[in-house]
Design goal:
Blueprint lengths: L3 H5 L2 H4 L1 H11 L4 E2 H8 L3 H13 L3 E8 L2 E8 L1 H21 L3
Antiparallel strand pairs: 1-3, 2-3
Length: 102
């Protein structure tokens, strides 16, 4: 088995919580913080920490606004986040292909 795909997995994305965030954002143009929190079953603090890590890596953009006089935080994938996630999925696909019996 070729170890290269394992070595190429992006460790920022690979963590379970961040992988969930990236997967959800890849499937939607924008999601509210509360949508992510509820769908992933995370606490506010845990989600905030993961989003901050993804934001610092340049993968996620966070926008704060108001809707009906209430604060609204939304997240989107950046272009580099979408690219990194696509590459990550590509490496996972290679790992799966290698693992299949011949």
């Amino acid at each position: 088995m070729n170890p290269e795909p394992f070595l190429q997995l992006d460790r920022v994305i690979h963590e379970k919580g961040r992988l969930g965030i990236m997967s959800m954002l890849a499937a939607a143009p924008e999601l509210a913080f509360t949508e992510l929190r509820d769908a992933l079953g995370m606490t506010d603090g845990n989600l905030t920490t993961h989003i901050r890590t993804l934001q610092e890596s340049g993968y996620v953009a966070v926008t704060k606004s108001f809707q009906n006089n209430r604060p609204l935080t939304t997240c989107t994938l950046t272009a580099s986040g979408r690219k990194a996630f696509g590459e990550y999925i590509g490496w996972l696909e290679q790992i799966v292909q290698q693992s299949r019996p011949k």
